[in-house]
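Reproducibility note. Readers wishing to regenerate the assembly model reported in the main text can use the exact inputs given here. Chain order matters: entities are listed in the order in which they were concatenated for prediction.
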Amino acid sequence: MSALVSDVGTRTAVAAANLVKVYGKGDTAVRALDGVSVAFQAGRFTAIMGPSGSGKSTLMHCLAGLDDVDGGAVHIGGTEITSLGDKDLTKLRRDRVGFVFQAFNLLPTLTAEANILLGLELAGRKPDRQWFDRIVDVLGLRERLKHKPTELSGGQQQRVACARALVSKPDVVFADEPTGNLDSRSGAEVLDFLRMSVRQLGQTVIMVTHDPVAASYADRVVLLADGHLAGEIDNPTADSVLAALKHLGA
Amino acid sequence: MLRTIIAGLKARTARLVLSSVAIALGVAFVTGTLVLGDAMNESMRDEFAKSARGVDVSVTLDGPGDAKGITPETLAKIRQAPGVAGADPRGYLQVPLISSAGKAKPAMATPLAGTEKLREFDLANGRYPNSANEIAVDVRTAETAKLSVGQKVKLLGQDDQTREYTLVGTYKQGVGEMSMAGGDHLVLTPDAFQALAPENLPYQVVAVAANGFTQQQVADNVRKAIGDSGFRVQTGEQLTAETLKSISSQAAEFTTFLLAFAVIALVVAAMVIYNTFTILVAQRTRELALMRCVGASRKQVFRGVLAEAVVMGFAASVLGLLGGLGVSALLQKVIASFGDASETVVRLPISLTTVLAAFGVGVVVTVLSAVLPARKATRVPPVAALRSQPDSGEEVSRTSKLRVLFATLLGVVGAGTIVLGMKAESEEPAMFISGAGTMVLLAAVLVLGPLLVGPVNRFLGAVPRAIFGVPAKLASANAGRNPKRTAATTAALMIGVTIVAMVTVVANSAKETAGEQVDQRLPADYTVTSSVYDRPLPRDLATRLAAVPEVAKVAPTSRVIAERLFFTAVSPDALGDLFRPKVESGSLSDLKDGTVALKADYAKKAGLSVGSTTTVKTDQGSESLKVVAIVSGQRLGDGVLTLNTAAKLNPEFDGYETIMVKLKPGVANGRAAVEKVTDPSPLALIDSAAETKAQLNKQLDQVLAFVWALIGLAVVIALFGIANTLTLSVLERTRESALLRALGLTRGQLRLMLVVESVLMALMGAAIGLVLGVGFGWVLTTALSTEAVQLAFIVPFGQIGAMLAAAVVAAVVAAAMPARRAAKTSVVAGMAEA
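Running the prediction on these inputs yields the following structure tokens for the assembly.
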């Protein structure tokens, strides 16, 4: 762990260079990403923010290899992923990327424990039991492992999703509006955990959000507007983020 | 509202096409079977009607008279009656036709009517005979006996003299009462017919009325001319009505058989349609709820669903009806290919019943299938329905007690009925009652279905889980997540497989039993029989056969037909060797002249036992016989007696019925040696056990093939149901699939997951169906077994394995489309899906 922590801020976990993504063709074409270049350091918690339609979700999808790009390149931990085929991309996702989505994070047919271990099983990897126990305890899911998702509250479901994202020790965790469907208390719990996983466990987290309070948990905020990079805030607070957003909107 | 409905129909084209195909297939199957039944009926009617066509007046013998037929004097009187334009006798005679190989085969000869209108045949080729040395034969006979116009045809007269005729034409015969046997058929001039059998008298005289006379007038005149007693005079109309009435009962049997399949088709189709709609409405619940939220009343929503279902059910039924005609035409071709009919006319009669059944299935089942789930959906508060849908697992476990109770009730009723059926004495009620019982048990399993899905799925899923890992684990979880849906999907297949397996088991058991019987019946290597029923084999044939060096032993048998009794006669030295019935009591070594061994069931009925005496009376004699043994077994008639006793009772039967031949051990070319003796005799036919078995098996296989063809349709519909469910499930789970893909499931694994799910569903249906089918097969074979015939219980593992393999292959095919579709969806697009 100490080795990881000493890495903080020096190594690049994910990088995008001149990223272009176009939806539609001809007159109706929309440049969702119009030459975005941005780097995310390992062991840091970064929030991507911007008004609706700014391209923040598209950026995340392209960074995570969920969507293909029309120009530019994405590197995850030194691997150029934009040239990878579907099979290699899938492999890369299950080995090196963790996901927390806004909703519908879990498979209804599996128990919480099976959901947490799903990615590892798909990769055919044995879970590190100590690591698993530690995450489960930190997230307070011990009592809930045998439950099906329908028997869990929204906050518990998101915590299970967090546990799944972390259990495989990925290079990077992408979180897409992870608190969007939660009440403020459950949301705060999830955000606390994400921050803790960065600070104490050395995880790298990239989160898309439109909520300034959620963004204030991050070490750094990347602002996006109309498919362009529109600024950065280090050590943000809710107020500083809100101010920046107001500035963008104006 | 209308605009919303039309918009809805447009927006869900893919799903609507799926459910329409389900409806159309179901309707097609039901119409197909009904039209087939009607077509069979119609063709039978037409054929039968030929015997009554052109007839204005018919005269037959009536009442208990001594008359053996209508005399020439009566015929002359009929001809002279006022208003009779022409009258012809109708008679028939069994006469052996000698084939080019010199072998006799039984044929039916009839005299050619002089009046053209009264001929019950249609000329196919050449012309009808004009003179006594000319002959015409049925087209089928011409084909099988390889005869063509201009050739010589030989008949074996009653004096065993061969007569030669020139073939001048062929004709197509109708199916008259006298020609139903379907054997060979030929026509001679009345003179030639008379010469062949001088004592044979016609059984009927038919006449045509002269111009200006009604049928009734002529009938009255004929009645006056010949007197009323001893004759039955009918008008042509009456004759036609009577003929049609007599065949209705025969046709009804086949219609019932087909109707049973139609009912199966109905149930299977209804299940597939219902299931498809349940899923569709479940998926639309949110849409319906949204409509309620924006102000649609419950009634409006409900009416919308109803209207949509009616439109769809109606449109699909029309397609299905047309498809059903195709199915029926196809089946008629299939049936025709079993028989040797050279040309078949495909008939497609559409009766009101058929149309009603088609639309009943198509529209009513569709509407019910759409409305019931829609009612359920509109009952929940709109906001609750807007939330995501829970799977049916909870509901199933909530209602499990009720289910178990109902299933137990059905199970008890079914089992009781089966026990009742098994106790029934005679075969037919035993089969029908037990059969009904098995169907009730099947219903019990259907009710229990959703509860069975869990355990069966866990059991069947174990193997794929071990082989394919995570995708199979997910597939198994998916197959089990919605027990009601899975149960309904697999039920259709289950019904089909149950019935196929049952029929296959029974048919194979029957085959095996028949084989055993043949072995028992024909302990000899060859049995020589007469090709013509009432012509015995000459006695010297046995002597000559015994003289063949390769032959170890011959044993001739004869028969005695007493009043309502039938005895087999053998020579005492054949007993226990070539002829070995099972001895229940007494001893066969005591069977000497003047004694009899009685068959167990007859002895029981008549209250006779070893030591008692019974009198056997025939036309020609009467003997008091001492009972020396009680036996059981095949082909014994009501008992066994010696050849000498038979000769006393039956002096006119000059010869043997069969001659059993046993070869010396290790003889090669035994058949050739036997043939050398039998070939010159036109009557002698060689029967070997192996050939008899092959012939029996062929008949059973034909029946089996027909049943497989019919049920095959049901299975196709059922598999379509699986594809349908899977497609809808894939649509429903778009987000789930996307999540899995995001988490690292490859496209191939996603496809594999769906294929495994499909295979699991198919196997669930097939496995339960096979277990039930084999069990029911056992029930039926046991019920059909009597004391005399113990039906063997044979499970055709090869065929069952083939069925399972076919189910797996079909399931893979069924999964192909939905799997492709699921794998093609991009992760991001899938995640965005509401």
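We highlight two features of this model. The mean pLDDT of chain A is 83. The interface with chain B takes residues 61, 64, 66-67, 86-87, 90-91, 93-95, 99, 101, 104-105, 107-110, 118-119, 121-124, 150, 164 of chain A (CB under 8 Å).
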